[in-house]
Amino acid sequence: MIQTRIFKANDIRGVVTGPEPEWDAAGAYAIGAATADVFGLSDGGGALVLGRDMRTTSPELAAAFAGGVLSRGADVIDIGLASTDGLWFASGSLGLPGAMFTASHNPGDYNGIKFCHPGAQPVEPDELVAIRERALAGPATPAAEPGTATSRDLLGAYADHLLSLVDLSGIRRLKVVVDAGNGMGGLTTPAVLGSQNLEIVGLYLDLDGSFPNHPPNPLEPANLLDAQAAVRANGADLAVVFDGDADRCFVIDERGEVVSPSTITGLIAVRELARDPGGTIVINKITSHSVPALVAEAGGHTVITRVGHTFVKAAMAEHRAVFGGEHSAHFYFRDFWGADTGMLAALHVLAALRETTEPLSRLVARYSRFAASGEINSTVAEVEPVLAALEQQFGDRATPDRVDGLTLTGDGWWVNVRPSNTEPLLRLNVEAPTEAQVVALRDEALAVIRS
């Protein structure tokens, strides 16, 4: 059973439990067979590496998907429980296409699949369409010779690779709160950070796909409250908060204040440009304008692309960019096959703190030059009439563009509204020189969006 709506712009995601599931194990089998065909793996054409998160439905769905792949004569290398960046590592290090069973930050009744080509390269939207059409038509006739399934444990190699990219030797002892939200950060944190000179205060490191403590979505401020409180209560130097599949990482300073992902993007961009002078940095349309300014001052070049890992990865590859960052706390690295990894971003923040005696709040202040609203979500019946109304509302003060949703750029400020790729939401982001301007622009935009 497969509902067409589970196929999103960049991946597959839908409800799998409850009274109205959108796909099931039989659907996963069909998708596996279709993936083998579309990726050219059928009839002995190659192998696919498979990972899964800790959601309660992941073992069944991943096994069914593997069965579909094997039925078409393709091989499966199963790495078992993994973060999404662990799957990217497997694809990159083994030179194989991959499939990761996860619904990232969505609630526990969801599951999904993220795909990649060998070297963790992105899958094109038309390939997802082809997988959808083949899967909806039902599994193809089994191959004469089924594929072979093998298992590999790559967690240690993943940790070693990340630690080879950032020098933490001689790091001053730091106290770090890590909130894994019962997601895959609970697996990767001990493997990567456990050997460093750090005192780890762990929050929800146990893997639990029912997410009993808070939803695994650090974009929602309520889901950061526990880590903020733990920083203050423990006198920690910082906190890192991972989403469900641990490919994103939010940072909280020693005061318990959230550091904007755009600020982290600026910090890492400057660090990467220091070792690759004149390099290219990729950001999305709603990353802070602070970042291009910092990149230019560091002698680098900025490329702006649409929101979403498919678009950022494609731009990373096209421009041989050294680093990329998104407002949603996805951070991409050339040395990680151009893919996103929250853990490597966290290592960069720790390394930057190692090089100074300043607290994190003072360190990151130099990378932030504007006030921002953060992402604000609204449910709307129809998107286009709202965008048209916003364009009319701000038309005499701003220049519009439709590169990614609607961006209205005024005198030192901008407002962006775009539909989500994965949820039925309209997302608002505002940036301006002062907090007062942000509040005024935010409230004006929300009045139109929610009217």
From TrEMBL:
Belongs to the phosphohexose mutase family. It comes from Microlunatus aurantiacus. PANTHER family: PHOSPHOMANNOMUTASE (PTHR43771:SF1). InterPro entries: A-D-PHexomutase_a/b/a-I, A-D-PHexomutase_a/b/a-I/II/III, A-D-PHexomutase_a/b/a-II, A-D-PHexomutase_a/b/a-III, A-D-PHexomutase_C, A-D-PHexomutase_C_sf, Alpha-D-phosphohexomutase_SF. Its cofactor is Mg(2+). Transmembrane segments: none annotated. It holds the Pfam family PGM_PMM_III. Residues 5-135, 157-256, 267-369 form the Alpha-D-phosphohexomutase alpha/beta/alpha domain. SUPFAM superfamilies: Phosphoglucomutase, C-terminal domain (SSF55957), Phosphoglucomutase, first 3 domains (SSF53738). The lineage of its organism: Bacteria, Bacillati, Actinomycetota, Actinomycetes, Propionibacteriales. It comes from the Bacteria. Keywords: Isomerase, Magnesium, Metal-binding, Phosphoprotein. Residues 375-445 form the Alpha-D-phosphohexomutase C-terminal domain. This is Phosphomannomutase/phosphoglucomutase.
